[in-house]
Each structure stands twice: as structure tokens, then as C-alpha cells.
Write a sequence for this structure.
């Protein structure tokens, strides 16, 4: 596979874990931690090395931490010349901001500040409208729709939040609503697994975050031209020009993440047969393999993983 057919993808919130930055501490890219701390107003080094899992459940801190690890991994990959030419970028939810930075659509300072403000806005919204999320596995779209309909008929709030891969959908909603989805899933030969997040993301319960994020986006210096990025909200390829990333980012707060479609677009429209996931964990690589056969997936979670990248 040539480097011209490589997609670089970045995970979102939920990939975080305690100590996830330790592997990168001796890398040359670790120097970015000081800059990221200044841009976000958070001690990023402490987040990446010392914060426990409970601390990292807080959405504003989790988003900064996952963003930071992905950026460090991206810089290390580029310094090692390990990725080469990239045909397209995409990121899952929060990861889209890393993709925008990687594609040259946003400078690092602006992307980091947006991530910090987005996380704080979503934290406030989650406290005002408590909720959570769950992954549905072994459930086709008809089953998911039936579950959502049944739970809503009982007066609960629940929505489809992520279309991750065939047989893997994520629902978002109130705490009782997601609890009821979990109870009913077994009746449909499906299984619901809670995600370690502190809010009902990608649902109308996040509406309180929109105004604050809108203000932050109003001054964001999006580039006129940049490398291809596949957007979460519509799975379309954007390269700048008349692209309104501010509008797409605002919509993304409450709209479902169309990840399965995004993977298919990277493969079919941009010819990507190799997917390099950079950031904590390998969740997206698993989703890619569920969506496409005969593609190469590589997960870069530590410096030693760079040796597995051939271009």
C-alpha cells in the first residue's frame, strides 16, 4: 500500500485512561505539553501523567487530555517520517479538532483553545441536563430504532448519537433513558455497554453548549485551503474554500457522528486502503475493520508503534 492512500484518524472522548501520556514523555514532541498547557489553561502534564480515571471522566479534562496525546503522537509520527503523504483525515467527535489541526485547517493554539472551550461548554450543559451514553452491540439499525422508540414511548429521552460501524451504534440520553435501553436490549438479542462519559453527547441535551461554542468559533482562523477532512455530521470531504467549519462544528455538538460513513468515504472517495489511528487506544481501528475488509489498520499509541508504520 502506498502512502498516497493513507487516512489518518483520531479518537474522541472515551479513549482516555490514567497515565496515557507516560509513553510519550521521553519523545521530542513532549515539549508541546507546555504550549498546550498555556493554550488551554490546564496543567496538561499532570493530566497525562497523574490524573486518575475518575478525574478523566470530567468531559473538559478528558477532551484536553485526548487531544494532547493525539497531537503529541501526530508530531512524533511526522518527525519520524513514518506516515508520509496523507490522502485524508478524520476524527471521531473531539478527534475532529485534531484532524482539522493535522490537515492545516487550524493552527495548534486555536485548535487547543477551541477544544478547551468546547469541553467546558459541554461540561456545563451536562450538569444542567444530566445524561450518559451507551454502545449497542449485536444490534442492527432496525433493532436500534425499535429500542429508541420503545424507550421514548415510556417518556424517556434517548437518541441515536454515533453510527460507528456495522452492528455498533451508540445511544445518548437521560440517565433513566439509557438505563431503560440497557434493560430492554437483551429482549432484542443485543447488549448495551455504558461509555465512561459524563454527559449525553451528540444529543439535544447538549443544546446548552451551543452558544458558548459559537462565541469561541466566531474568531477561529480556519484556513481557506487545507488537506481533505471528512466531517462527522455529514460524512462529506472538505478542503476549505467555502467550507463553513464553524457551522459544522456547532452542528456536531448535537448531531450524530456518522463514523461508518466517514470510513467508507475515506476508502471509496479518497482511495484510502490504510488507516493510521493516532491517540490513546485502538477503538477506531476496530471500527474500521468492522466496516471494511482488506484494509490495513495501524494504531499509534506509543513511540514504539512508529516502527510498524511503513510508507
Amino acid at each position: 500500500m502506498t502512502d498516497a492512500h493513507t487516512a489518518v484518524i483520531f479518537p474522541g472522548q472515551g479513549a482516555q485512561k490514567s497515565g496515557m501520556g507516560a509513553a510519550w514523555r521521553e519523545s521530542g514532541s513532549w515539549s508541546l505539553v507546555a504550549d498546550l498547557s498555556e493554550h488551554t489553561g490546564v496543567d496538561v502534564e499532570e493530566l497525562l501523567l497523574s490524573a486518575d480515571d475518575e478525574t478523566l471522566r470530567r468531559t473538559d479534562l478528558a477532551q484536553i487530555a485526548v487531544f494532547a496525546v493525539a497531537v503529541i503522537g501526530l508530531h512524533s509520527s511526522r518527525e519520524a517520517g513514518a506516515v508520509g503523504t496523507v490522502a485524508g483525515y478524520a476524527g471521531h467527535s473531539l478527534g475532529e479538532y485534531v484532524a482539522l489541526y493535522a490537515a492545516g485547517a487550524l493552527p495548534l493554539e486555536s485548535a487547543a483553545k477551541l477544544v478547551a472551550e468546547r469541553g467546558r461548554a459541554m461540561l456545563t450543559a451536562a450538569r444542567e441536563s444530566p445524561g450518559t451514553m451507551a454502545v449497542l452491540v449485536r444490534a442492527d439499525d432496525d433493532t436500534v430504532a425499535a429500542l429508541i422508540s420503545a424507550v421514548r414511548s415510556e417518556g424517556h429521552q434517548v437518541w441515536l448519537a454515533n453510527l460507528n460501524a456495522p452492528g455498533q451504534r451508540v445511544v445518548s440520553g437521560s440517565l433513566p433513558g439509557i438505563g431503560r435501553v440497557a434493560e430492554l436490549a437483551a429482549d432484542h438479542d443485543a447488549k448495551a455497554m455504558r461509555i465512561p462519559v459524563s454527559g449525553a453527547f451528540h444529543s439535544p441535551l447538549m443544546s446548552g453548549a451551543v452558544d458558548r461554542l459559537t462565541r469561541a468559533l466566531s474568531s477561529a482562523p480556519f484556513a481557506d485551503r487545507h488537506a481533505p477532512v471528512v466531517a462527522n455530521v455529514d460524512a462529506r470531504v472538505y478542503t476549505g474554500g467555502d467550507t463553513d467549519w464553524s457551522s459544522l462544528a456547532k452542528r456536531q455538538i448535537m448531531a450524530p457522528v456518522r463514523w461508518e460513513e466517514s470510513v467508507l468515504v475515506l476508502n471509496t472517495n479518497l482511495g484510502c486502503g490504510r488507516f493510521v489511528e493516532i491517540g490513546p487506544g485502538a477503538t477506531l481501528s476496530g471500527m474500521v475493520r468492522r466496516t471494511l475488509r482488506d484494509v490495513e489498520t495501524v494504531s499509534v499509541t506509543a513511540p514504539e508503534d512508529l516502527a510498524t508504520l511503513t510508507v
In short: Residues 54 and 265 are 36 Å apart (CA to CA). The longest helix spans residues 59-79. The two ends are 8 Å apart (CA to CA). The chain is about 40% helix and 15% strand.
